[in-house]
């Protein structure tokens, strides 16, 4: 990586991707196999659908677009699926997708970071692609956490042991 600003951006991207992955893993500890595919209503998605959607979106944006790979995403399947993956299989699929995306991001060249491209009908530079990936992953992580809290009526303890009331220095 040639540029210190890009190096810092990548470092923070890795942290944010790892944080969302950590939170999803904690949320998954609280639910059973049946709950993975429950939908709160017909207009909403199951946790399983959200994981499949995250894998599809991250693959399309980070791995395919930034990495210059063929876009083979079938977005509709992500939402139509109602079973077929266990909790463990979904977590492995997500973990593998994140690992591949992180490697793609870490190995991106300055040219890839700045190149404008079309993804899902939107026009982004490589930096814009990664901002989308981090934001989208975080957004759906929050949805998963909210749905698990609704199912289990408990706090998930994402920051147990940390004092989040410490003032800025």
Structural topology:
Layout: H1 4-29, H2 33-36, H3 47-66, H4 75-80, H5 87-106, H6 110-114, E1 117-119, E2 122-124, H7 126-152
Antiparallel strand pairs: 1-2
Helix pairs in contact: 1-5, 1-7, 3-5, 3-7
Structure description:
This is DinB family protein. Pfam families: DUF1572. The chain has 169 residues and is mainly alpha-helical. The protein has one domain: dinb family like domain (Four Helix Bundle (Hemerythrin (Met), subunit A)). It contains 7 helices and 2 strands; from the N terminus they run ααααααββα. A two-stranded antiparallel sheet has the order 1-2. Strand 1 and strand 2 form a beta hairpin. The mean pLDDT is 95.
CATH superfamily: dinb family like domain
Given helix and strand content, the structural type is mainly alpha
Q: How is the CATH topology named?
A: Four Helix Bundle (Hemerythrin (Met), subunit A)
Number of helices: 7
Radius of gyration: 17 Å
- Report the CATH architecture: Up-down Bundle
